[in-house]
Design brief:
Layout lengths: L1 H8 L7 H6 L8 E9 L7 E11 L15 H11 L19 E4 L3 E11 L6 E3 L2 E5 L4 E5 L9 E8 L5 E4 L5 E2 L3 E5 L11 E4 L3 H8 L5 H29 L9 H36 L3 H6 L1 H20 L3 H19 L18 H9 L2 H32 L12 H29 L10 H14 L2 H33 L9 H15 L5 E2 L2 E2 L1 H22 L13 H4 L5 H22 L7 H11 L1 E3 L11 E3 L6 H8 L5 H29 L3 H4 L6 H25 L9 H26 L6 H23 L10 H9 L3 H23 L12 H6 L4
Parallel strand pairs: 1-8
Antiparallel strand pairs: 1-2, 2-4, 3-4, 5-6, 6-7, 7-12, 8-11, 9-12, 10-11, 13-14, 15-16
Helix pairs in contact: 5-6, 5-15, 6-8, 6-11, 6-14, 8-9, 8-11, 8-14, 9-11, 11-12, 11-14, 12-13, 14-15, 15-23, 16-24, 18-19, 18-20, 21-23, 21-25, 23-25, 24-25, 25-27
Length: about 850
């Protein structure tokens, strides 16, 4: 009682409005615990997770407000008192991620608030999350506890700092307990003052590099690191086109070959040019803005430059695709509308330079809001998307039509009007969703702001929303072209070359020619091979590309010696594909069927199930293992020659595949792969885009929802391309049966990923879902190989009740071995999937990626 009286007689300073609003005097009995935990290993960037637990007495006047809906002003005020600085009416954090709203629980005497936050260290700026401030330097990071002012006299019972296995370089106040990597400050009784915590830590070199690489001037080198990959792909396509041109095809329909080859060269150059724009539009403009070079373009009119580059690249696609008159007229109108917004923004209530400053120029924000400036700029973004969609569709149509056209000159065909209308609708929808996602980001980052405090909130909201949306033209290039179109168009152009050569091939050859093999290798690298090579913020994709090329070349070199049709016949020097020609396929299939029947009789004879002349069976089998001599001596026209060891009629028939040509085998394998890949695509899309908090993350990403659809399409196309490659290379791959051929190609696909996984282990990056994807690719290709072998003997399908029975007969397997192999495969698949999907769901982080933050340094 004496202490209370003395405290009441002490002079006190004037109470602030925030103190009155938060009833700070009623929070002196609140109890607080806080913790932060760093995680460096198994992450692309260092991650810090924080937990703040505040127990306030029920007697606090704001305690009932904690149970209200999150959209109410009283709820935000109460949370702002406990989690932030209540003097700031507009708290905004774009470096704080949250998986959910704070959890509120009610006890007998207390109301408890648990807030979980996190942040990834992707740059060198200061990051605020929860009650923590992390200042990121080049090599040392500084962590400080910044308690909310309303809790300055509360009882901070326990504060824990886990440095993720890295001892601290400096600690301001000694901890109560703990060790070198985990520090704990404990207050045994209420002291009225939170602990002063200031810790300096040194993260792993790989994580420090990853954070530093996104800053100036290193982000320019990041683009330069990815440029050699696209340059190497361009050189590969150029060499492929030269090889195709040198290997002429003489046929009436050979005119499509030079036309498709010319298209391939143009598309490769156009894709490379757009890639250069996509890589350097943000980085160079940001670099020049930092250097003060050409401020009129790099600072004052930077967004207009992005808009112009996006429209110019889309017009380049339309120029090559040559859509019809109606589509061209629509493209011209959309381009004019977009350029009008970029060049004369004041006509549409937009500010000069397309930048709003709600603090210093509130009148511009009011004119922007009342004049419909946001709608006008969103419409200009839709024009950019429309021009691109028309150009992409026209390019793909021209590439494929050129392969089937026999007349010289312009490729026949028109741009479908239905696709034109669909492009317009999709453009508007995509931009509307982008605006909606920007609003969701705003809600997440300003969730504690005072909404009805003054007019300033509306100005701040509108300016921030436009600041996010104005980067749409640049982000569109980064997402659509940088993720998908740069390999879609060249892949289709290569397919058109292969299709044209197949149509013009007279006579039909058994094996792909040297030029076709080079073309197939280019197709696999461009279309199928995964793009990896990011290590601690440093892009080194050429390492993985080199590994892929070496393994693919080694596989084909092995096929020249070990493939069935490349095996040499004894004593003649001829190869099997020179003797067993395509015209003999039906005779080979009949011989293979008879061979299996005789072997079945021999097995029954050994088991005593029938009586048969063993020597007669063996003589007939011996005749089936012979082929007519390719060049018999004079006077001996009926000379025969034996097949190579371990090669029988069944293996010879399987080596040809189900179709007469390599192109036919490729189309058939692509069909099978498309069917078998559907469950795998669903599983991977769920694992990468839907599982856990990933689905909620889509609602705050500009292209999050549509990216889920395009990612599924891209995965399906990728696996269809892998199946097509397997089918076309069917006759030159080593192995006697389909699964063995598929395993070789699956290993080629895995080679760059294995390089990435090895590097990820060294720098402590996560493996992601790569092991799951590799297992699915192997499974899809294996099933495709089995289906190709079954389809080879499809003429016997009506004699077997199931395809499994036909497969057992073709492979001459016993039921027990098949069941054991199936069981082992199921166990391996289950273990792989479990290893990939177990563990905690990823947490959400709302912030720009490193590339976006460099581009948006001006906002």
């Amino acid at each position: 009682m004496i202490t209370t009286v003395l405290l009441g007689l002490l002079p006190v300073g004037p109470a602030s409005a925030a103190d009155d609003e938060c009833r700070v005097s009623e929070l002196t009995s609140a109890r607080v615990t806080a913790s932060v935990r760093f995680k460096h290993e198994g992450e692309d960037y260092s991650k810090a997770e924080g937990l703040l637990t505040v127990k306030v007495p029920k007697s606090w006047s704001r305690a009932p407000d904690l149970l209200l809906n999150g959209d109410t002003e009283r709820y935000r005020t109460a949370m702002r008192c406990l989690l932030r600085f209540p003097d700031d009416p507009f708290p905004y954090r774009d470096t704080e991620g949250r998986t959910a709203a704070p959890e509120v629980t009610v006890e007998e005497k207390w109301v408890t608030v648990d807030q979980r936050v996190l942040t990834w260290v992707t740059g060198l700026q200061t990051r605020h999350f929860g009650p923590w401030s992390l200042t990121v330097g080049d090599r040392l990071w500084r962590l400080e506890l910044m308690p909310p002012s309303a809790l300055g006299r509360a009882w901070w019972r326990k504060v824990t700092v886990d440095l993720g296995g890295r001892p601290a370089r400096q600690v301001s106040s000694p901890p109560t307990t703990g060790g070198p990597t985990e520090l704990t400050w404990v207050q045994r009784k209420a002291s009225g003052k939170p602990p002063e915590i200031d810790v300096t830590l040194q993260p792993p070199a790989a994580k420090a590099s990853a954070a530093r690489w996104s800053e100036h001037p290193w982000y320019v080198l990041d683009a330069l690191g990815w440029l050699p990959l696209h340059g190497a792909l361009l050189v590969l396509v150029l060499l492929t086109a030269r090889a195709v041109r040198r290997e002429s095809v003489s046929a009436p329909s050979a005119g499509a070959v030079p036309r498709t080859t010319r298209n391939l060269l143009i598309v490769a150059g156009l894709a490379f040019a757009i890639t250069v724009v996509q890589l350097f539009d943000d980085t160079l403009l940001g670099h020049f803005a930092r250097q003060g070079t050409a401020p009129f373009w790099t600072d004052e009119h930077r967004i207009s430059v992005h808009m112009g580059l996006a429209l110019l690249t889309g017009l380049g696609l339309c120029g090559f695709g040559r859509p019809g008159r109606a589509a061209l007229a629509a493209v011209v109108a959309a381009t004019g509308s977009g350029l009008a917004v970029a060049c004369r923004p004041e006509w549409f209530a937009l500010p000069s330079g397309l930048w709003l400053d709600w603090v210093n120029a509130p009148d511009d924000v009011l004119r922007f809001r009342d004049g419909g400036g946001l709608v006008a700029f969103t419409a200009s973004c839709a024009c950019v998307v429309f021009v691109w969609l028309v150009g992409v569709t026209a390019v793909l149509l021209r590439l494929w039509r050129a392969a089937g056209s026999t007349a010289p000159g312009r490729t026949p065909g028109r741009f479908p009007h239905a696709w034109l209308a669909a492009s317009a609708v999709l453009s508007v929808a995509l931009c509307a969703v982008s605006l909606w996602s920007a609003q969701n980001v705003w809600e997440h980052q300003s969730w504690l702001s005072r909404r009805n405090a003054s007019e300033d909130y509306g100005l701040w909201h509108m300016a921030t929303l436009f600041a996010d949306l104005r980067w749409f033209p640049s982000d569109w290039l980064d997402w659509f072209h940088g993720t998908y179109f740069w390999w879609w168009a060249p892949s289709l152009a290569i397919l058109a070359v292969l299709r044209a050569r197949d149509t013009a091939a007279v006579p039909v050859t058994a094996l792909p020619s040297a030029a076709e093999l080079r073309t197939l290798k280019a197709f696999f690298v461009v279309c199928v091979a995964p793009v990896v090579g990011w290590y601690a913020g440093v892009p080194l994709p050429l390492l993985s590309l080199l590994a892929l090329w070496l393994v693919l070349s080694g596989l084909l070199a092995l096929g020249t010696r070990r493939a069935v049709l490349n095996r040499e016949l004894p004593r003649t020097g001829h190869r099997l594909h020179e003797v067993a020609r395509g015209a003999d396929r039906q005779r080979l299939l009949n011989a293979a069927r008879r061979h299996r029947e005789l072997h079945a009789q021999l097995r029954r004879l050994e088991q005593g199930q029938q009586e048969e002349d063993r020597f007669r069976l063996e003589r007939e089998l011996d005749r089936l293992h012979r082929l007519p001599h390719p060049s018999p001596p004079p006077g001996l026209p009926n000379t025969w020659i034996r097949l190579p060891p371990s090669i029988g009629p069944v293996e010879l028939a399987l080596a040809w595949g189900p179709r007469a040509t390599a192109w036919g085998n490729g189309c058939r394998a692509a069909y099978f792969a498309a069917v078998f890949a559907v469950p795998g695509v669903v599983l991977l899309v769920w694992a990468d885009h839907v599982r856990g908090i990933r689905w909620a993350d889509k609602f705050v990403q500009r292209f999050g929802l549509v990216d889920t659809v395009t990612a599924a399409v891209a995965l399906e196309l990728l696996w269809v391309g892998a199946g097509f490659t397997l089918g076309v290379l069917w006759r030159v791959l080593p192995g006697r049966r389909g699964p063995v051929r598929a395993a070789g190609l699956a290993f080629v696909y895995a080679s760059p990923v294995l390089v990435q996984l090895a590097g990820s282990r060294l720098v402590g990056q996560p493996l992601g879902t790569w092991p799951l994807e590799l297992s699915l690719v192997l499974l899809v290709l294996t099933l495709t190989g089995l289906a190709m072998d079954i389809d080879t003997f499809r003429g016997e399908r009506r004699y077997w009740p199931t395809r499994t029975g036909l497969l057992l007969s073709v492979y001459q397997w016993r039921t027990a071995s098949v069941q054991m192999a199936f069981l082992v495969g199921q166990l391996v698949a289950l273990v792989t999937i479990w290893q990939q999907l177990k563990g905690n769901d990823p947490m959400i982080l709302i912030e720009r990626s490193p590339s976006e933050s460099t581009g948006g340094s001006g906002n």
